[in-house]
Every structure is written in C-alpha cells, then in structure tokens.
Amino acid sequence: MRGITLPAGTPTEVVAFVGDLWWRPNGPVEDPVAPGHEVLRRSRLRVLGTADVIVPGHGPAFPADGTAPLWAAGAAVAAAPPRWRAPILEPRTRCRAGGARAGPASAGGGDRSMDAHAAAGGGARPGGEVPGRYGTAVFRPERAGEDERIDLGALAYDEVTLARLTALGAGPGWTCLELGAGTGSVARGLLTRAGVSSVLAVDRDCRFLASRPQPGLATLEADLTDPAFSPGRFHLVHARFVLMHLPERERLIPRFAELLLPGGVLVLGDAVDLTSAAAPASPYTRAVRAMWQGLRATIGTDVDWTPRYPELLRAAGLTGVAAEIHVPPLLPGSPISRFWADTWERARTAMTATGLVDDAAVDAAVRYLDSPDCAALSPGLITAWGRRPGVSGPGCPGGR
C-alpha cells in the first residue's frame, strides 16, 4: 500500500512507520521518485511534530528530532494542514481568552519557538505604550503555516529543554504547568518521555493544542497577565519564549513562583543574543537587528534583561538557582535556519518599518541562511531554574 503513515503508541512514545517519507535514516533528503516534493516536505514536518521515533522504509529507526533529514537547502515549505491525532475522549478545560499570546520556543517547543526580541532594553515604548501584542499585531495563529513555524523552533530546542526538565526531576507523579504552550511539543514530551502524571497547557489561543490531544494533557485558554490567573499548584511550572514578549515580565516571575508546590521547580527560558549587536555587518546581522528593533516597537519584545534570570529567580525566593545557554548551529536547511526565514517573512512589515532593511535586504538575508557562505551565530536559548523551599507529598522533588 502506498502513501500510508502508521503511528503506533507505546506507554512511553509515539512510533511512526513511514516507508514512503524516508528511505533510510540519512535520507535521501530529496526523494527522486516522490510525485510531489512539496507534499513530501510538508508530510515530513507533520510526522516530526507528532512522533518520537521514526521507522523508515529501510534501515534502523531514528529519533524524530532536528537531526532528521527534512529538505534540501533553499527549499520553500508551504503550510500543511493540522496534524492528525487519534481522538481522545478526555475533558478539556477552557476559560476566557485575552492578553498576550505567550512567546517557539517555542523552540516550540512550552512550544513557543524563539520568535524575536528587541535590541534595545525596555519592552515598551517610552511612556509604557506598546501598540500590539504577540498573536494579534504579528505572528497571528490564524495565518496559514504559523504552527509549522512554531514547530521548526521546537525541533531546534525541544531536546535540550526536555533534557533539562528531566534532569531536574520531572517524571512519574509530577503535575506540570506549561505556560505559553504553543503547539504543545514540550507538554507532550513531558507526558510521553518523562512520564509525568499530567500537564496543564495554557495559552491565549489553544487551537494548535486542541488539534493534537494527548492522554494526560488538559488545555486552558487564559491571560497570564490577569491578576486572577490562578490555575493551581504544580511540581513543575515551565515557560519558554514567553516572558520576552510580555512587558509585565518582572512582575510575573514571583507570581509564577507562587504556583509551585513546596519543593517544586520553576523553569524559565527565553532568547539570548550573544553576537548580533557586535558582529560584522552581513545580510544576516542586518536582518536580525531590524527584527529585534521592529518587534520591540510592534509588540514590546525584549531580551536584554534575560541574563538577569538567575537574580530574578533568587529574588522570588527560590533556591538552587542556576542557568545555562544553548545555541543551535545555523546550517543550510536546518530547522533553526528555516525558522528564522519564516519568522522574517511574517515580521517583514515590522522589520522594514525600522528603516534598517528593505524588502530586498530581507530576501538577501533569507538567501544567506541557505548559502554555504553563511557564517553566523544564531540567537540562543537561556534556561534558568529555581526551586521553592519545602517538601510536599508523594512525587514531589522535595528539597533536592
């Protein structure tokens, strides 16, 4: 039978049998007998957003992560329809929508992939005014392909995020809160790979979460900045690429810490840019600088403050505070390179409004990402964590 992908669930992961999408673990990237390469690329991305393990037509199984061959450098990927998931009869929680759509990452990745940030400090304009918010002024979820863009960021960042969460103890018996959950890749990873008991995934718009249900996963549409937001207490509270988009960020960190059970862990991740301000001018650095500045003016995005995460978590009363940085390599055709190209396309209006670039310069930056001459360092993910003092009941990490 031709053209069939068979997903199979196990107690710990989802395995996809995809003989028509990948011949072998190493490709070929472009199937020479595929009837439509565009459809092939879209189908591969759908599988990567759903499965944990891929079984190709020939050869051994391989992980469904950023190492999987996707498409050749320079290939454009059109929007794919929502991913299929077997219907699961499970209650789903919803409440009022409002506020900011939390920020890839997560990415995806928390599934909000790393969308963009401002070069200069202060998320809002002078006077505290921000003209729009994430998901309304830019990166609108109803725009075709927005979930694919988020998933590309998740492919770049989910492995390091899930490794950190499990290293901090996430596992059986834990209840978890995923803030700004996006398409839900981290939430699902906590359930299928870490084996946590439950995850409540919160976002302003849950359409992507609703299209991919999972046992143990509940969703909540809510405004994280609402003073009335109080979904309960959890062993783990995680947000990735969220606070960078919210001008209320410093006020929210202590509130998120209050959502922890005694002994619980707060893990926060956001964008960190190590080089673009000082790097030599190139099509890439010009586009990055215009993106940061344009999104600051448009939605108040800011990551200049993210290196302060450890001190802010300590000020919130948490202990065992630490942080790390992950920077994925910019390689032609890689998930992070495709993510940036799509992000620049969707943020093009904000970028060109800065006067730093025009449409031709944005196009040149996209070509540079897919060029073997590309030599640049991508913005990375800073992840910081701290633990609420005390010990709660069974399954709690306790005072570790």
**Tertiary shape:** globular
Major sheet: 7 strands, mixed
| Strand line-up across the major sheet | 7-6-5-8-9-11-10
Spans with pLDDT under 50 lasting ≥5 residues?
71-130
Q: In which range does the helix fraction lie? A: 25-40%
Number of strands: 11
Sketch the topology as an H/E string, one letter per element: EEHEEHEHEHEEHEHHEHHHE
The total count of helices amounts to: 10
Summarize the structure.
With 400 residues, the chain is α/β, with parallel strands linked by helices.
Q: Could you characterize the architecture of this molecule?
A:
28% of the residues lie in helices and 16% in strands. The longest helix has 22 residues, at 146-167. α8 (335-346) packs antiparallel against α10 (359-369). The chain has helices spanning 37-48, 146-167, 185-194, 207-210, 249-257, 283-299, 309-315, 335-346, 348-353, 359-369; strands at 6-9, 14-17, 53-55, 62-63, 175-179, 198-203, 217-221, 234-240, 260-272, 319-326, 380-387. The model is unreliable at 71-130 (pLDDT under 50). The strands form 2 sheets. It has a 7-stranded mixed β-sheet with strand order 7-6-5-8-9-11-10, with helices on both faces. The chain is built from 10 helices and 11 strands. With 400 residues, it is α/β, with parallel strands linked by helices.
Question: Can you lay out the helices and strands and say which pair or pack?
Answer:
Blueprint: E1 6-9, E2 14-17, H1 37-48, E3 53-55, E4 62-63, H2 146-167, E5 175-179, H3 185-194, E6 198-203, H4 207-210, E7 217-221, E8 234-240, H5 249-257, E9 260-272, H6 283-299, H7 309-315, E10 319-326, H8 335-346, H9 348-353, H10 359-369, E11 380-387
Parallel strand pairs: 2-3, 5-6, 5-8, 6-7, 8-9
Antiparallel strand pairs: 1-2, 3-4, 9-11, 10-11
Helix pairs in contact: 2-3, 2-8, 6-10, 8-10
